[in-house]
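Lecture notes, unit on protein representations.

Consider one protein chain, 140 amino acids long.
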Amino acid sequence: MINTCNECNSNRTIVVEENKRKFILQNNSLNMINKVRVDGCYINNGAKCDYLIELINSNIVKTVFYIELKGSDINHAIEQIESTLQHCRQVHNNIDKECYIVLSRFPSAGTSSQVLKKKFKQRNNGIPLYIDSKVKRVIR
């Protein structure tokens, strides 16, 4: 678990937002959640995503969500997520990961997004990438 630049709670709704982009985590099971501000706090140099959220169960990190809130530069957003994955590979070794990019506009059902998601998954050991203009992830 990351213990810097973080905020822990078991609230039902966890929100990260920036520049009118928003990621909502619906924590229906009321697990402990560790929200970490990555950009400008946990990581200060190089490319990095905006936030990561650790889902904690029985004092063990079970899943990590890497989140980039972006205008429309999808390729830079992917670079930021991948750089953060690399930076956190030791602390999040053998933990399930999901990556989210929230854009102001992007055709989520288009073939270009499907190709980007597939290539990302291939390059990053099967880690899924989700791209959309609105994201709400529900934990049951």
